[in-house]
Amino acid sequence: MIPKELLKKIRQIEIRTKRLVSESLAGQYHSAFKGQGMDFDEVREYQPGDEVRSIDWNVTARMNHPFVKKFREERELTVMLVVDLSASGLFGSTDQSKRELAAELASVLAFSAIRNQDKVGLVLFSEEVEKFIPPRKGRRHVLRVIRDILYFKPQKRGTALGPTLEFVNRILPHRSVVVVVSDFLGETRPARSGILANLRGGAVHTESLGRTPATALKQTSRKHDLVAVQITDPYERTLPGLGRMILQDAETGERVEINTADERRRSAFARRQVKTQDELDRLFRSAGVDAIQIRTEEPYDRALMQFFDTRERRRRHG
């Protein structure tokens, strides 16, 4: 039985996201993501300005007058939402945890997709693929996707992006839109835990992504239209000055004691996090992955609209 509080939360997410989709995002989504190809539509008479390469020479010869072939985009897409359920997603220093925000973002994308007659599927992962929901259409299906992101209890606490993307590549036979929603804070190796490693002045989380995820990102990007949605919390970028604290890594259980009143410590932490983010951004660029950063303390609609607008302009001029 799903708790009433969760049903209420799902309904609230549906109301908020459907309004946003209908008012602004559905059209931008349509323009930002290409269909799988072009289908022949009709032959019509040549008009000034038509592309010469589109002339149908067989029809032109028969009719003794130039005709051109017209094509329409094969619009139906499959959108696979790949959502990180590792324990770090339960953290949130604002009104929403990263997991709750991930569910809302997935809802926006899913409702945009079904409004455009696209299919939506879901992969939930931690250290392994925890659940797979095959792509389908319809409101009830989208509500199930939101429910599982919020309600599903993963068996593991860590993160393994590489094997998850390999799984996605196996189950999707045709080119699809693959959206990875994660904080990208690292994998299961305890010594590579991103935030705590940073507090110690050690390894950063892009190193913890490892060669396998980097390779998987490139392979998935070549096969599909891959988008990385990174969810970040302000306390993961800059430490609050709250005095002496004991921090525990949600994925490994590792603890570290730190005096956050030490301004030099906070400044060093912030610098290392900037470096970490720069390295992650370079990883995405080298893999050919479109990336968008969503912050828990800011409205996500502006970031999404800017992302869609950038993709639309690139598509139009590409």
Plain-language structure description:
By secondary structure, the chain is of the alpha/beta class. It has 2 domains: 41-74, no CATH class; 75-317, von Willebrand factor, type A domain (Rossmann fold). Helix content is 47%, strand content 22%. It has 11 helices and 10 strands. The chain has helices at 4-32, 57-63, 98-115, 139-151, 161-171, 194-199, 205-209, 211-223, 234-237, 263-287, 300-317; strands spanning 37-45, 67-74, 78-84, 119-125, 129-136, 177-182, 225-232, 244-248, 255-259, 290-295. It has a 6-stranded mixed sheet with strand order 5-4-3-6-7-10, sandwiched between helices. Strand 8 and strand 9 (255-259) form a beta hairpin. The termini are far apart. The model is unreliable at 187-193 and 202-208 (pLDDT under 50).
What's the SSE blueprint?
Blueprint: H1 4-32, E1 37-45, H2 57-63, E2 67-74, E3 78-84, H3 98-115, E4 119-125, E5 129-136, H4 139-151, H5 161-171, E6 177-182, H6 194-199, H7 205-209, H8 211-223, E7 225-232, H9 234-237, E8 244-248, E9 255-259, H10 263-287, E10 290-295, H11 300-317
Parallel strand pairs: 3-4, 3-6, 6-7, 7-10
Antiparallel strand pairs: 1-2, 4-5, 8-9
Helix pairs in contact: 1-3, 1-4, 1-11, 3-4, 5-8, 8-10
Cα(first) to Cα(last) distance is: 50 Å
Total DSSP helices: 11
CATH topological fold name of the largest domain: Rossmann fold
Residues in helix, %:
40-55%
CATH class of the largest domain: Alpha Beta
What's the alpha carbon Rg, rounded to whole Å? 23 Å
Mean pLDDT: 84
How many strand units?
10
Given the helix and strand composition, which structural class is it?
A: alpha/beta
Adjacency order of strands in the biggest sheet? 5-4-3-6-7-10
- Taken as a percent bin, the fraction of beta residues is 15-25%
Identify the CATH architecture of the largest domain: 3-Layer(aba) Sandwich
How does the overall form come out from the CA principal axes?
Answer: elongated
Unreliable runs = 187-193, 202-208
Tally of individual domains: 2
Q: What's the SSE pattern?
A: HEHEEHEEHHEHHHEHEEHEH
- Biggest sheet, in brief? 6 strands, mixed
CATH superfamily of the largest domain: von Willebrand factor, type A domain
